[in-house]
Amino acid sequence: MPTDQQLARKSLRYRRDILRWIKHAGAGHTGGSLSCTDILNVLYNRILRVSPATASDPGRDRYVQSKGHSVEALFVVLADRGFFPESELASLCGYGSHFVGHPTRKVPGIEQNTGALGHGLPISTGMALGGKMDQAGFRVFTLLGDGELAEGSNWEAAMAASHYRLDNLTAIIDRNTLQITGRTRDVMSTEPLEEKFAAFGWAVRTVDGHDLAALTAALSAPLEAGRPGAVIANTVKGRGVSFMEDVGRWHHGVPSDEEYARALAELDAALAQLPEATA
Amino acid sequence: MSAPAASMHSEAAQRTAAGLGLKMGRPNLEEFADTLLALAQADRQIVAVTSDSRGSGKLGPFGQALPAQIVEVGIAEQNLVGVAAGLASVGKTVFAVSPACFLTARSFEQIKNDVAYSDNPVTLVGISAGVSYGALGTTHHSLHDFAALRAVHNIAIVAPADNAEARAAVRAAAAARHPVYLRFGKAALYDLPAAGPFALGRARMLRAGADGAFIATGETVIHALLAAACLEQQAGLQCRVLSVPSVKPLDRAAILGAGRDCRAVITVEEHMVNGGLGEACAGVLAQAGVAPRFKIAGIPDEYTATGSQADIFRHYGLTMEGLARAMRALLLG
User: Fold this and answer.
1) A228 contacts A202 by C-beta, under 8 angstroms
2) Rounded distance between C-alpha atoms, residue B297 and residue B242, angstroms
3) Low-confidence ranges of chain A (pLDDT < 70)
4) The whole model's pTM is what?
5) Which residue from B47, B55, B189, B213 has the least number of CB within 10 angstroms?
6) Are the Cβ atoms of B79 and A130 closer than 8 angstroms?
7) Does A133 contact B113 at a Cβ distance shorter than 8 Å?
């Protein structure tokens, strides 16, 4: 199990790689990838029982990225975990590449094709239900955006997951409070999320979505026996790059050469302040 | 008090059917439910998923016999298909059962993405399809489902014409490791003449002939067959009848054969004339330079007539009499 400091270094490197590949491709969902980086880091390095060697093991844990547009973060983490060579990301969004702008199963490690919002929670509910039917021990995780929760299909699934007491299901909400048009609270408020999920019968915990230890604690085990779990992660869109943080235009902004250099300098400086863990 | 249901077949049509030795079977929906129950008893990975549609889908006995293999999601068709995809992705063989009108419209995006694009082996079972719920109005009609699903990659579209086709289609869907859409009505159907085995992508020739050809699917096939018999008796015309349970993939060779051998082709479907079997056949014929006289019989693009399924079929000429008249006009006009 990597230490918090090792994970913190990984997060900085992931953020750097996310920006590098978005810059290379000239396209990508920058802000949302940076807001969920720490969540994916904890999931893939501490929580999920998945690996390239067990990628088709029926007993593996499942992760479904419902907010599919933040796929660059997922690609970078999967490459780091050895599902494919990172160099393959050079084809991101290119002609004939299977590294398209949303998750597809053609990429090793990706479970389901997503990208249209409001699909991940119903699919994950079915997966978790199948696991319960077979008394399999795997857990199912899905990552949703707070803006995405305006899609009604989420609430159909929230009802069913609670009805079937799917404590093997955890929904993580990347609450970065921004969507493409502006503040979620102004576009269509999905709040109060804690009360909504609780009213649907879910166990709920709110955490700092950039606190690796807090995320680990919230995700290590089901929140409550007999209930699906909602981990509401308070995050900052564009996290880690000062001029991108909490700024709506970075929803799918590609940095200019000058912005890219500044962003990398900030991340490198942060990395320099975090020494490698001593052996 | 509702109006008495009109018979699907006129007395003349019933006499023609008797002359062909045809026996009345039962609704395809019942054949589906019994076939699925038998399959699921032998394979415990088979799961039925319903959206408050257990009764409509004739799955009451299934639920009683195999309570651990049926999942209810309530009146929530988007979730029905999403959950079905998730179940399939973890190894279940899933039949998602809901009225065709809701299943193929409300959950269209789940079908396109979660089932077809992700290639999760789900069989979507559209019950009370077409105008089976005729008197309930357009909300409950599915006259768009062929067109909608034909435009989605990676899903077979199957509309069985009788109990034998229905039984074979359910078995084929359970064995397919890819998405399938099955479309069933709720009226009792005549058992059609034997015509070779059912297979995805294959048409079945129920009657030979080289004057005209009827290319029909689902619950309209019997009307085409009776029309062909009627045309022979009354006018000495020999008409081929193809049952096309597999609207996609389509049996191009059989369609082209009919177009090349016959002077006139009429396609018949319980679907809007836009985007269904007829336009699929027209595309096959035109792109091969085969140009028989051609008509698409179906529900026209208008505010659909009201009444029972039988009333609506009669209104639009999807009957023995109507189809025989249309073929005579095409051949002799």
Assistant:
1) yes
2) 14
3) 277-279
4) 0.96
5) B55
6) no
7) no
